[in-house]
Amino acid sequence: MGDTERDSKRDADRRLGRRALIVGGAAAAVGTAALARDELAHLWWRLPGVERPRVAGAVDFRGARWIAASPANYRRADRPDDYAIDRVVIHVTQGGYASAVKVFQDPDHRAAAHYIVRKDGRVTQMIRELDVAFHAGNREYNERSVGIEHEGFVERASSFTDAMYAASARLTAGICTRYGIPADREHVIGHVEVPGTDHTDPGPYWDWDRYMRLVRSAMSPRATKAATKTTTKS
Questions:
Q1: Tens-place pLDDT, residues 149-199
Q2: The CATH number of the domain where 193 resides is what?
Q3: The whole model's pTM is what?
Q4: Closest by alpha carbon to 170, among 98, 128, 229, 112?
Q5: Which of 77, 81, 84, 70 is nearest to 52 (CA)?
Q6: pLDDT digits (tens, 9 = 90+) for 17-43
Q7: Which stretches make up the N-acetylmuramoyl-L-alanine amidase domain (predicted)?
Q8: Which end of the chain is more exposed for a tag (fewer CB within 10 A), N or C?
């Protein structure tokens, strides 16, 4: 092979090398961009000047009373666009309704659920479903779930009234309908079932068989239509 031919081959090899680097770099850039988009979707609320509009007092469950939790007890988000919602977590307050509201409004408490259901069946919403409530003691479960507190004590069967079961079941049915969550015990769970938690709620007196029957009944076509969200995400 002559000098000219060898030089020509070296130039061709260099061009091929540069092309491979460019193509490989482009592929890596595309992969990086996809990862960046996914990460930004989860972090949009941290960007300077970014804030989704909200309607003061808007609720996600028809008939719920709105009382705002302290912003220290939840994280603003845009679920399910940034985090898919695929769980409902059932809690018991270990106290009365008023005390639960008080602690959820306390910034030092660092925990709150989206909803509280009273013994008389009245429902209070304290955090929008699109936001991440600090209720489960597990970051991943917080990000993917809606938390429902129930007034009462795990050791008292009398805490769980007919009105409470009925109202809570309608609430859970509405959540399952909105986000396409199966109404089963894999997706509707107790706080005790969250990995890493030391809580025992809802406890041995919570009637899961009864509750899940009520949830499924409330998801009938007619009930589902009535339970659908009446507010927008704004």
A1: 999 999 999 999 999 999 999 999 999 999 999 999 999 999 999 999 999
A2: 3.40.80.10
A3: 0.77
A4: 229
A5: 77
A6: 444 433 344 444 445 555 555 555 556
A7: 74-203
A8: N
